[in-house]
Specification:
The complex is a heterodimer. Chain A is of the alpha/beta class. Chain A has helices at about 5-15, 35-45, 105-115, 160-165; strands at about 20-25, 25-30, 50-60, 70-75, 80-90, 95, 120. Chain A has a single domain (about 5-165), classed as 2-Layer Sandwich (Beta Polymerase, domain 2). In chain A, about 25% of the residues lie in helices and about 25% in strands. In chain A, the strands form two sheets. In chain A, strands 1-2-5-4-3 form a five-stranded mixed beta sheet, with helices on one face. By secondary structure, chain B is mainly α. Helices cover about 50% and strands about 10% of the residues of chain B. In chain B, strand 7 (about 350-360) and strand 8 form a beta hairpin. The longest helix of chain B has 29 residues, at about 110-140. Classes of the chains: A alpha/beta, B mainly alpha. At the A-B interface, strand 3, strand 4 and helix 3 of A face helix 2, helix 9, strand 6, strand 7 and strand 8 of B.
Chain lengths: ~170, ~400
């Protein structure tokens, strides 16, 4: 691990008792959900991580605890460093405190989390779906959401399927 | 007949000013079917006369579920979906995806393949900027620039077609190298382009850079300061036009960018004009890289000979049993990748294009996330259009350089 990164990981460890993993030179730090906002503030203000490069999640279904990892990929332009924070969340009603106060881009990225994974950003100023239409059922990027296809209509089941079809009606 | 639902203002209540609720300002839809939104972007505008009070971008009209689809395919088959993301930067998307796969399974790439990757991605960057310049000109009513830019872009498309057989959806860069070596005509085609193109950039600049009508429309419009840009995850030419010298090609050189001599254009004004200048300069710099890479193009293989991940050449399949087995295995089952996660980022024409690739030990990825620059760059739009006219909104939107396939994924 890079020397500069080592001090940062240590600081996170001391403040929030985090653990970390290393793979191919990348450092993934595991943070608890209640500490994530403080950890982001610490990294932004003290260690110059000005850019939240990515905010997303991974679903480990059928595993339930933790089912999700919320991933924060941070970049420091001044120090030319990257670090990834991961927040494990359980499958029942996943919630994460919003990071919009720390990075404004978290606004759209957390709306995407809500839309795609059903992970609720607590205290978000604008919690609407971002990509899917309003009224969509389920969260498409969850592993238990089927990669669905449209059911073909034949003469014998035309009306039956027409009833279930939400779109493309004349 | 389809039912037309009446949309109430309630869901946007917290995003518009109080004046909209009393009816003093007007809410107006711009898009999704609007020529200056570069695809299917809907912007809900709150207007006071012709002045924009608030703008609320509404995305998702081009959502194709690429991330979800990639999870259902093997690593090789999933690559064809990456072309469809940012359809102006197809080789760049292939490149970052292949780099992520190579990082995940620890695969080496031969020198010649790396050099050709550089040439193709830089040509693609020029092509992308040309399309941007064309659309930018068109939005500002400069029709001839549009036609000139597409003429030159077609030459790049021809080079890509020469290599891969496809103009746009190339899938030419593969994990471990390239699909196949470039044909013999490749070098002359690229040299012709290098010889011709600097004069053409001068032509565009003669038409636009000092044109008073053009300057009137652009100077001081849509100013974005560096702090706001970073807060909103803005990267690429937009960030560099706001005075932050951050280019992943320089900061974290991948595919040997540290061996090339090129500059990173930076402007400090942060307005629409600065973004225009940065992109035009970037085309010249990309051309320099292409020329250097072509001059020192090494000979040798273009694919890794690690048969567990890279299919053997066609000539071997007829004579070697192992080659046939490897080929069959790779195209039916694919190769397994470790249960781990990597993040890989490159500088696309629009900014930091990253891919987060997570394997689960099988031949299919568990998670592919695309950190697409247009998404973050667009999110800053409401902040930079406030107080400008609707006509300026068109110029600002054009200067952001969004690709809807890149935003909606």
């Amino acid at each position: 691990m890079d020397k500069k990164l080592e001090t940062i990981v240590q600081a996170l460890q001391e403040n929030f008792s985090t653990t970390f993993e290393e793979f191919r030179g990348e450092v993934h730090v595991f943070v608890k959900a209640e500490n994530i906002v403080d950890a982001l503030i610490l990294l932004r203000d003290k260690y110059d991580f000005e850019l939240l490069s990515a905010l997303t999640a991974t679903d480990y279904w059928p595993q339930q605890s933790p089912r999700f990892h919320v991933i924060y990929q941070l970049t420091s332009l001044v120090k030319n460093l990257s670090v990834q924070l991961r927040v494990p969340l359980n499958g029942d009603q996943p919630k994460i405190p919003t990071a919009t106060r720390v990075y404004e881009i978290a606004n759209w990225r957390e709306r995407e989390l809500l839309d795609m994974f059903g992970i609720e950003p607590e205290g978000h100023p604008d919690p609407r779906r971002i990509l899917m239409p309003d009224g969509t059922e389920g969260h498409p990027l969850r592993r238990d959401f089927p990669l669905g296809y449209e059911e073909p209509q034949f003469t014998f089941n035309l009306e039956e399927i027409d009833l279930q079809k939400p779109y493309a009606k004349e | 007949m389809a039912q037309i639902e009446e949309v109430s203002i309630d869901q946007f209540k917290h995003l518009v000013s109080e004046r909209a609720l009393t009816g003093e300002t007007m809410l107006l839809n711009m898009g999704p079917q609007h020529p200056s939104t570069h695809g299917v972007l809907r912007v809900l505008l709150e207007l006071d006369g012709e002045t924009v009070v608030n703008a609320i971008p509404d995305i998702g009209y081009l959502h194709t579920g690429i991330e979800k689809n990639m999870e259902a395919k093997t690593y090789l088959k999933a690559e064809v979906m990456s072309d469809r993301l940012d359809y102006m930067n197809t080789t760049g998307n292939n490149l970052v995806y292949c780099m992520a796969v190579e990082k995940l399974v620890d695969l080496d790439v031969p020198e010649r393949a790396i050099s050709i990757r550089v040439i193709l991605t830089e040509l693609q960057r020029i092509a992308s900027h040309l399309v941007w310049l064309a659309a930018f000109g068109l939005d500002l009513a400069a029709m001839s620039v549009f036609l000139y830019c597409f003429r030159e872009r077609e030459m790049i498309m021809d080079i890509l077609e020469l290599c891969s057989g496809q103009r746009m959806m190339t899938t030419y860069i593969r994990p471990g190298g390239l699909w196949r070596d470039v044909p013999v005509e490749f070098e002359t085609a690229v040299r012709d382009f290098i010889k011709m193109f600097p004069k053409r950039i001068d032509e565009y600049e003669a038409l636009m850079t000092k044109n008073p009508l053009f300057l009137d429309r652009l100077l001081g419009i849509g100013i974005l300061d560096a702090a706001t840009a970073l807060q909103n995850g803005v990267t690429g030419p937009m960030l560099r036009a706001s005075g932050v010298n951050w280019d992943l090609r320089k900061a974290r050189p991948y595919i040997g960018y540290d061996q090339y001599d090129f500059n990173v254009p930076v402007r400090t004004e942060g307005d629409t004009y600065a973004r225009y200048i940065v992109r035009v300069e970037e085309m010249r710099e990309s051309l320099k890289i292409v020329e250097q890479a072509l001059n020192r193009l090494p000979l040798g293989p273009v694919r890794s000979d690690n048969r567990k991940f890279v299919p053997p050449p066609r000539s071997e399949i007829g004579v070697s049993m192992e080659a046939l087995i490897h080929h069959f295995k790779l195209w039916t089952e694919g190769f397994p990748a470790p249960n781990a996660s990597v993040y890989c980022a490159v500088e696309s024409p629009r900014g930091e294009l990253g891919v987060l690739l997570e394997g689960d030990g099988s031949a299919k990825p568990r998670r592919v996330h695309w950190r697409t620059p247009s998404f973050d760059n667009l999110s800053v739009l409401p902040k930079i259009v406030k107080g400008h006219l609707v006509a300026d909104l068109v110029a600002i939107l054009a200067s952001v350089d969004i690709v809807l396939g890149d935003i909606d994924r």
